[in-house]
Specification:
Its EC number is 3.2.1.21. The chain is of the alpha+beta class and 952 residues long. 21% of the residues lie in helices and 29% in strands. Strands 15, 16, 17, 18, 19, 22, 23 and 28 form an 8-stranded antiparallel beta sheet that branches.
């Protein structure tokens, strides 16, 4: 025994020294074991097990009850950095509190998601903050600072940013490649990650499933070249679940798992999330890679060192000094109040002709209708609700239950089969000890997937079911007791789920018309792909694991007992004002693994608002959704329109307070709302410059612009000043509340180059400030902008550049509501034309392209360009050939031709077939050109162009 601890146990030493000491004491097998998500204990050294990954996107997820805050896109809609920091702090404290009760809860949290909301049909749009990198960065910095905590030495939790990089589609998400040109890469996608990493509150990142420029993100050289160049902190890279195996199994990027594992480890992945808690598969691959010389022990040590550094920062080895070790803050009064505040601040008033605020008053009756009117929807990354507030709940409390009418607007149906009517048998009484919810219902977690309830049957008595059409023919059926028809593992159909949910939703169906049966339909269960048949032992979609085919399906006839529109029309006509609550169920209408197909509101919900408006013109449409909708006609016809993301546990109370005028809405749209699907680019088109995506480049007329949101007050902007102070631009303006009520305003500052070309942003957010002002009060808002934010990535010179000249500084209430402008003149160094004699032309550094995609030049690093369908073109502007060049050397693989066109003269170079896509050959041609010219390159065949050099 010794009185002195081992060095790694000595809190007087630096984390770096302690990490090195501990690393040196671990055997090779112990080090390899730490590379899996579930790292085992090292009992001989007194080290406990460790798990990377705890979901905490808007509250502690997947670990039972927790405070549920608004979805991430709702937090983005607050445009309030301070609020989001406080939310992050609350979530971090609840992670710590739950960890003290359950060691399955991890302190390495996988949050936030900073992927940009480039395309509004992305299924996971609810997880991001905004389409703009500056706003996303600001919100991400705030949230991670809250999660990390303020202690200079120890971290409350260790946040990991998701998902690196250019991940914005669920369609073919593990095989699709995002073609990202250098300007989009540096100005857009990398920008979203950079500031949070530089701020020092991020412990690492998670690579995305997709490929970028033909190379899987899990072997991306950008992890080293970019991510780890932004900080000296030892960032941890955690793989996404199953992604290491995808490198071989679905992407076929490597021939063997040993090659794939070695390549990802050497590229910078430190922790492998694969095969669940079974670490033997991945650790076996690592050992085999070592044995084959694909890795060495230094590669192992580099990764383990980073993982250990994170564990030291989390206080694992200093429990007596860890300031967060005894945190018990869970479901506190402060957290409940914060959830309400966040929900209130996320509400966006899209349109209002004066109908709102709707103050409660004598004789005022309100009809609340719609599929989400009495819903408090969760998503895949939510915790279990401790408290629940639906719009109907909130409005009843605020206006008085006796003054509120309600109609959900669902169709009520009965399903007839050959032997009678489909019916839900009466369930046996709950067993002793079974959990019950607040109102006596069985706990939803026990209900979902239960197999002890009797399956549906056919008989003389029919069960009326609420039928909801969520769009695209996706249906759910619900009983009067509030239970959804669901399918458990045994294949039987029961009324057993409190809500649709789960990784594979088991509560959705589709009616398919059967030819030759007048009005007859088969009922397809979407989750299993089996058809419903009703046999003597009950309704089922599978037998012994085998799906029931269409030929064996029961044919049902649907009888409508009541149309949802009729119920809505009835209550709408009887009320003073109607509030229609429409939107999406986050488990059904777009989600992880599933993109949306349209911006349109589902047809049933479209009919409901139209019915309500026809019966009562004082109709308000509330869209409660994770995404934008193209509600062009509703915006034109209805007197008021609001949007809120799913607002968590306090959503209904918050909405009622905004409608009643207790709170003036001040949320702002974090992404553009387009007028129709025709405004959208292809889902897989990541070239936001070329296809004019997001508010930065979109030159059409949106339904609602980025940053849009109305209030119940009136604000004026005055005295804008923009002054260059060295490396900063100081922007200041005065915002005054000229309205009769206290309210928040979100001042937004944009810039653009006064003489910007078509490929530069139309406007670019550089700062924002949400401020609360009493009636008549004014505040001087000051925003400091790094001058580099006014620049762009120069493909001509391969660097960031800020061009000298005049820049227009614009301040206003949205990207389209600019109130003031000023001019800032920057002194800089003109970048000038492309020095092609010295630098040549990298194929991916084009200014414009048509029909091409960027692909991987080699598996380790580098880009090339290939035609998508046999022919493509690249344009390089302003190429300076100096006093003249006499030859061109093309580096290409594949087979086909490369044609150079300069000043009307063309030279076609044939590229003979090479041994493979990574086997590059050089082809030379005479070329006599001098001065500055545009260069157009035409690619034909299966050629991959790496670049072109020029000989003086």
């Amino acid at each position: 025994m010794t009185d002195h601890p081992l060095p790694f146990r000595d809190p007087q030493l630096s984390f770096a020294l302690r990490t090195d000491d501990l690393l040196g004491r671990l055997t090779l097998d112990e080090r390899i074991a730490m590379l899996h998500q579930f790292a085992p204990a090292v009992e001989r050294l007194g080290i406990g097990p460790f798990r990377t990954g705890q979901e905490a996107l808007h509250g502690v997820a997947w670990m039972g009850p927790a405070t549920v805050f608004p979805q991430a896109v709702g937090l983005g809609a607050t445009w309030n950095d301070d609020l989001v920091r406080r939310v992050g702090e609350a979530v971090g404290n609840e992670v710590r509190a739950k960890r003290a009760q359950d060691d399955r809860v991890g302190l390495n949290v996988w949050a936030p998601t900073v992927n940009l909301l480039r395309h509004p049909l992305w299924g996971r749009g609810e997880e991001g903050y905004a389409e703009d990198p500056a706003l996303t960065s600001a919100i991400a910095v705030a949230y991670t600072r809250g999660l990390r905590g303020d202690d200079p030495r120890y971290w409350r939790t260790a946040p990991v940013l998701k998902h690196w990089l250019a991940h914005n589609n669920e369609t073919d998400r593990d095989t699709a490649s995002s073609s990202v040109r250098p300007r989009v890469l540096h100005e857009y996608d990398l920008r979203a990650f950079r500031d949070a990493v530089r701020a020092g509150a991020v412990a690492g990142v998670m690579p995305a499933y997709n490929l970028v420029n033909g190379r899987p993100n899990h072997v991306s050289p950008l992890l080293g070249e970019q991510l780890r160049s932004w900080t000296e902190q030892p960032l941890v890279v955690c793989s996404d679940a199953g992604a290491p195996s995808n490198l071989v199994d679905s992407e076929h990027y490597f021939d063997t798992h040993e090659e794939a594992t070695a390549a990802s480890l050497r590229a910078g992945v430190d922790s492998f999330t694969d095969h669940g808690q079974d670490s033997t598969v991945m650790t076996g691959r690592i050992r085999d890679a070592l044995a084959k010389g694909l890795l060495d022990e230094n590669d192992i040590d580099t990764a383990v060192r980073r993982l250990l550094a994170m564990r030291f920062a989390l206080g694992e080895f200093d429990p007596e000094l860890d300031p967060y070790a005894d945190v018990t803050a869970f479901d506190t009064d402060e957290h409940r109040a914060l959830a309400l505040e966040a929900a209130e601040q996320s509400v966006v008033l899209l349109g209002n002709d004066g109908l709102l605020p709707l103050e409660p008053g004598e004789g005022r009756t309100v009809a609340v209708v719609g599929l989400l009117a009495d819903a408090c929807k969760l998503d895949w990354y939510s915790g279990t609700l401790l408290h629940r507030s639906t719009p109907l709940d909130g409005i009843r409390r605020r206006y008085g239950a006796e003054n509120v009418l309600f109609a959900e607007g669902v169709d009520r149906v009965r399903l007839e089969c050959a032997d009678g009517w489909l019916r839900v048998p009466e369930a046996a009484p709950a067993k002793d000890g079974e959990a019950r919810g607040a109102e006596g219902a069985l706990d939803p977690a026990l209900l979902a997937g239960r197999t002890d309830l009797p399956p549906l049957t056919c008989g003389a008595d029919a069960t009326e079911l609420a039928l909801v059409d969520w769009g695209d023919g996706v249906l759910t059926f619900r009983t009067d007791e509030g239970l959804y028809l669901s399918v458990a593992d045994d294949g039987y159909v029961r009324a057993s789920a409190d809500e649709p949910g789960g990784w594979i939703v088991q509560e959705t169906f589709r009616l398919e018309e059967v030819e030759g049966h007048d009005g007859g339909h088969r009922l397809l269960h979407i989750g299993t792909g089996g058809y419903v048949t009703v046999a003597a032992d009950g309704a089922k979609v599978a037998v012994s694991g085998e799906k029931i085919s269409a030929a064996d399906a029961t044919v049902f006839r649907t009888e409508t007992v009541e149309r949802g529109e009729d119920a809505v029309a009835r209550v709408a006509a009887a009320a003073d004002t109607v509030i229609v609550v429409a939107g999406n169920d986050p488990h059904i209408n777009g989600r992880e693994t599933e993109d949306r197909t349209t911006l349109d509101l589902p047809a049933q919900q479209e009919r409901l608002w139209r019915t309500a408006s026809a019966a009562n013109p004082r109709t308000v449409l509330v869209l409660t959704s994770a995404y934008p909708y193209a509600v062009t006609e509703a915006a034109a016809e209805l007197p008021a329109l609001l949007w809120t993301a799913h607002g968590g546990q306090a959503a209904g109370t918050a909405l009622a307070r905004v409608i009643a005028g207790d709170v003036s809405p001040a949320g702002r749209l974090p992404q553009t709302w387009y007028a129709s699907d025709a405004d959208l680019p292809g889902l897989l088109d990541y070239d936001i410059i070329g296809s004019r995506q997001t508010y930065l480049y979109f030159d059409g007329t949106p339904l609602f612009p980025f940053g849009h949101g109305l209030t119940y007050a009136a604000f004026t902007y005055t005295d804008l000043a923009a002054e260059v102070e060295g490396e900063r631009l100081r922007v200041s303006l005065t915002v005054t509340n000229d309205g009769p009520r206290a309210a928040d305003e979100v001042a937004q500052v944009y810039v653009r180059a006064a003489e910007s070309g078509t490929d530069l942003p139309l406007r670019k957010l550089v700062g924002h400030r949400r401020t609360h002002l009493a009636p008549g009060a004014a505040e001087r808002v000051e925003i400091l902008v790094p001058v580099e934010e006014l620049g762009h990535w120069s493909v001509a010179h391969g660097r960031w550049t800020v061009e000298p000249g005049a820049y227009e500084v614009m301040a206003g209430a949205s990207s389209a509501d600019i109130r003031l402008t000023a001019t800032a003149v920057l002194a800089g160094e003109p970048s000038g034309p492309r020095p092609v004699v010295e630098r040549g032309l990298e194929a991916a550094d084009y200014d414009e392209q048509q029909g091409t995609e960027i692909v991987d030049r080699a598996k380790v690093a580098g880009d090339a360009v290939a035609p998508v369908e046999g022919v493509g073109q690249l344009l390089f502007r302003g190429c300076d050939f100096g006093d003249g060049v006499h030859g061109a050397t093309v580096s290409a693989s594949g087979a086909g031709s490369v044609t150079l066109t300069v000043d009307g003269r063309s030279a076609e170079l044939a590229v003979p077939a090479t041994a493979g896509i990574y086997d590059y050959r050089t082809v030379e041609a005479a070329l006599d050109i001098r001065g500055v010219h545009d260069v157009r390159i035409t690619l034909k065949g299966s050629v991959r162009l790496a670049g072109i050099g020029f000989t003086a």
